[in-house]
Design brief:
With 169 residues, the chain is mostly helical. 86% of the residues lie in helices and 0% in strands. It is built from seven helices and no strands.
């Protein structure tokens, strides 16, 4: 089996955890699903030879472990600095810029104490990752980001838009 095929299988598994993540209300459940997903996505990018994205995935996995226990701004700042350093060390052009910016949105989202801004920031970061994955040539990762956005929007609708409409009726 080729590395490309393995990478797409890994993304397929990551899609499952992504789809689950935003259907939870509790922050700890959301980030736990994202931890598993990030690890699989990182290995996926290793298979494809996209090292900035692979390292960003590993940083994201570490971030999700960390942010289950703290939302401290100093810790968030350490992840921002680590992301910028990794980006400079593994720089591969536009793809590195895109995954760095997407990763930065993910950092700020992960350290939100409330799930509403977490969902909003993740939507922006995911949109940037979607563009990255299109340019990186990974159809599975493109599908994953589209589904992730959709799942996020469904969860956002369930928790923040629908309850407001019901209150009006």
């Amino acid at each position: 089996m080729s590395l490309f095929a393995v990478s797409q299988i890994l993304v397929g598994i990551a899609i499952c955890t992504d789809m689950l993540s935003f259907q939870f209300k509790k922050r700890v459940h959301i980030v736990s699903c994202l931890l598993v997903s990030c690890t699989l996505i990182s290995i996926h990018f290793m298979c494809l030879g996209h090292w900035t994205a692979a390292c960003m995935g590993l940083l994201a996995a570490a971030r999700f472990i960390t942010c289950v226990f703290t939302t401290d701004r100093k810790v968030r700042t350490l992840f921002v600095l680590a992301t910028l350093i990794v980006s400079m060390v593994t720089y591969e052009g536009l793809l590195s810029v895109l995954c760095t910016v997407g990763g930065l949105f993910g950092i700020y989202a992960s350290f939100c104490e409330d799930d509403k801004p977490l969902r909003q920031l993740m939507a922006v970061g995911t949109s940037i990752w979607l563009l990255h994955n299109i340019l990186a040539g990974s159809p599975g990762a493109v599908l994953m980001e589209i589904l992730f956005l959709g799942s996020n929007f469904v969860g956002y609708f369930r928790y923040y838009i629908r309850p407001q409409k019901q209150a009006l009726g």
